[in-house]
């Protein structure tokens, strides 16, 4: 298709690329059985969990879930855009890019260049502007040295409406580019004025050190106190953190990060030799922020003011953190005395006492139970029951693992119950909760083998416990969880996952099959993914696992497919075709039974006396039993 790189060309590039060689040139790999292993380049770890499969041309980290093919590795590791990644691999493979099909690439160089020009202007103004005294005195009053100001590239935007505009025009810079970079505001057609005026300027850098935006702080009490650049093609607030680049420059190995509120807090702490503070950019901390930090260090501490606003911010942060709490990670909450902030505290106490506060911050589990215990009287029976009701949905946001188990244990202790008793009671309550599950799915939750003719117990396909810790099992990361079915009791998801895994193990199998009739009209997200996969493989005969993952790269489906494909690392290739046929039979059984139960429910709700559809389905079920 014009404007796109042909998929056939991308397939050719992948076929000519050795992913082991590509990754080994950047990350030292060691042979591990039929695969290769290393410590993951996308998060900090001591034991290698990053695995590369030469047979499937695919990598996967069992620690953080990073995955993909050769193109995906360049996208994530070198932060290349898609076209450049393909072009780089094509050049290494001796292939010429099909120029007539190349998309029009967005060239962001002018944005980076004009932001650098603006930074030089702001830094120069801090030293030489006739208005500089007010800015310099403000920084001195805040206790900042010239050295720390230089380290963070601080500058000054003098009062006036077009100072920066004049500086940019003197350098022959396009003001339309300045508008795109967020430096100026358009008053009317081709008439602009400076966005930042009479403020201390803080350049915001990306992970490569390029300036992507600015923050500006007033010198007095005017509002808004802080003004940030708007989002632009190169600046996304929920992905960037102020001070992260500077922290990485000062230390190749970071053990923790302290998340604070403002730029001045980051800089004041750095001046006191606390070089691991970062700040969000006018937004609440996001999951993107946390995952970015956890790739670099195992511990994150949130620093809040001790007032009501700080407590509310802590509660919001707690909810964001729970799904990210994989084993080996730690999150703490540090509350400062009311009226204080990190800047004022570190200047009063110094590094040693401030870090003592950090060491004794509340862990996430401690804060969680303390927060909920304040809402109920845990000394009463109904208070304990209420605590359990409040806590369970939050704890279920945690990935399966040690932390989840320990928090359930603590909840059981607070409720005065044995852990197994609590789990059993919660399981019993599950069917009564509002759910989109069909009656058939609910019966399976209570008794997976309820139908002798359609028993799933003779073909166990539950996932290995080795995979129970995956972030993939969190609700937000699986489209198939939208059915309301739990991971461990949902036969549709379990059987679909097994079928997909066997397809990814040997994609050529799809050439001999089409979507079974029993699945065609069934609308479940996990089964829809399987149907799309079968159609893709039939349309792309000879497609490899790497090609499949590349097709869905960057989507929720793609993440799920990558996690399923990763399980292949632990399984032999023998008898894959027979296993696939068996799995498909079991899945077809489920689909027929599901359709029957759905029809029964529809007829009941509509009080329908026409049972022709149900009879047709029952007839289909009997025919299936006879033929299988």
Textual characterization of the structure:
With 628 residues, the protein is an alpha+beta fold. 47% of the residues lie in helices and 11% in strands. It contains 26 helices and 16 strands. The strands form 4 sheets. A 5-stranded antiparallel beta sheet has the order 1-2-3-4-5. Helix 20 runs parallel beside helix 22 (525-539), helix 20 packs antiparallel against helix 25 (576-606) and helix 23 packs antiparallel against helix 24. The protein is globular and about 90 Å long. The two termini are 44 Å apart. Mean pLDDT is 79; it is low at 101-105 and 431-489.
Secondary structure elements and pairings:
Blueprint lengths: L6 H10 L2 H6 L5 E3 L2 E4 L11 E4 L4 E4 L5 E2 L1 H8 L4 H11 L16 H20 L3 H10 L4 H6 L3 E3 L5 H8 L4 H6 L3 E5 L2 E4 L4 E7 L5 E8 L7 E3 L15 H7 L5 E5 L2 H9 L5 E3 L7 H8 L4 E7 L2 H14 L8 E7 L5 H18 L2 E2 H10 L7 H15 L6 H14 L3 H11 L9 H8 L44 H15 L11 H4 L4 H15 L5 H7 L4 H11 L9 H31 L5 H16 L1
Parallel strand pairs: 12-13, 12-14, 14-15
Antiparallel strand pairs: 1-2, 2-3, 3-4, 4-5, 6-9, 7-8, 9-10, 10-11, 15-16
């Amino acid at each position: 298709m014009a404007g796109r790189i042909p998929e056939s060309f991308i397939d050719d590039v992948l076929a000519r690329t050795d992913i082991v060689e590509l990754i080994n040139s950047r990350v030292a790999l060691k042979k591990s059985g039929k695969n290769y292993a290393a410590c993951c380049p996308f998060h900090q770890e001591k034991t290698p969990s990053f695995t590369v499969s030469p047979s499937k041309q695919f990598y996967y980290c069992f620690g953080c879930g990073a995955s993909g093919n050769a193109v995906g590795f360049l996208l994530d590791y070198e932060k290349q855009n898609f076209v450049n990644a393909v072009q780089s691999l094509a050049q290494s493979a001796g292939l010429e890019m099909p120029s007539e099909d190349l998309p029009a690439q967005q060239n962001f160089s002018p944005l980076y260049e004009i932001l650098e020009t603006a930074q030089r202007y702001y830094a120069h103004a801090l030293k030489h502007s006739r208005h500089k005294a007010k800015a310099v005195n403000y920084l001195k009053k805040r206790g900042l040295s010239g050295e720390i100001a230089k380290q963070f590239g601080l500058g000054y935007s003098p009062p006036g409406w077009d100072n920066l505009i004049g500086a940019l025009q003197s350098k022959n810079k396009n003001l339309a580019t300045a508008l795109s970079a967020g430096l100026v505001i358009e008053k009317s057609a081709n008439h602009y004025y400076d966005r930042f005026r009479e403020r201390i300027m803080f350049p915001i850098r990306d992970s490569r050190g390029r300036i992507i935006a600015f923050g500006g702080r007033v010198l007095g009490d005017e509002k808004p106190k802080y003004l940030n650049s708007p989002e632009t093609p190169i600046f996304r607030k929920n992905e960037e953190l102020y001070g992260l680049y500077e922290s990485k420059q000062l230390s190749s190995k970071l053990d923790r990060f302290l998340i604070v509120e403002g730029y001045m807090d980051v800089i004041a702490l750095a001046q006191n030799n606390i070089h691991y503070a970062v700040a969000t950019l006018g937004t609440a901390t996001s999951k993107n922020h946390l995952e970015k930090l956890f790739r670099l260090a195992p511990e994150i501490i949130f620093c809040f003011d001790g007032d009501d606003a700080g407590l509310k911010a802590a509660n919001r942060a707690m909810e964001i953190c729970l799904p990210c709490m994989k084993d080996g990670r730690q999150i703490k909450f540090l509350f400062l005395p009311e009226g204080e902030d990190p800047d004022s505290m570190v200047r009063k106490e110094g590094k040693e006492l401030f870090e003592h506060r950090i060491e004794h911050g509340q862990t996430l589990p401690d804060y969680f139970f303390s927060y909920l215990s304040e809402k109920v009287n845990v000394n009463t029976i109904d208070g304990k029951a209420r605590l359990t009701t409040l806590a369970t949905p939050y704890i279920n946001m945690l990935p399966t693992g040690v932390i989840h188990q320990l928090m359930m244990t603590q909840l059981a202790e607070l409720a005065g119950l044995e852990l197994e008793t609590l789990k059993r009671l919660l399981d019993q309550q599950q069917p009564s909760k509002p759910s989109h599950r069909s009656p058939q799915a609910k019966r399976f939750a209570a008794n997976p083998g309820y139908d002798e003719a359609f028993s799933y117990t003779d073909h166990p396909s539950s996932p290995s416990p080795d995979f129970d810790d995956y972030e993939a099992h969190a609700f937000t990361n699986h489209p198939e969880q939208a059915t309301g079915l739990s991971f461990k009791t949902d036969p549709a998801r379990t059987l679909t996952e097994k079928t997909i895994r066997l397809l990814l193990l040997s994609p050529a199998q799809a050439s001999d099959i089409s979507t079974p009739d029993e699945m065609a009209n069934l609308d479940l997200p996990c089964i829809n993914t399987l149907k799309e996969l079968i159609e893709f493989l039939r349309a792309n005969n000879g497609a490899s696992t790497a090609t499949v993952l590349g097709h869905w790269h960057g989507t929720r489906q793609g993440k799920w497919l990558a996690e399923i494909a990763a399980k292949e690392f632990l399984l032999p290739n023998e008898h894959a075709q027979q296993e696939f046929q068996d799995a498909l039979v079991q899945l077809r059984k489920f689909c027929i039974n599901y359709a029957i139960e759905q029809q029964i429910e529809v007829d009941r709700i509509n009080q329908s006396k026409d049972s022709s559809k149900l009879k047709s389905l029952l007839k289909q079920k009997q025919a299936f039993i006879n033929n299988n």
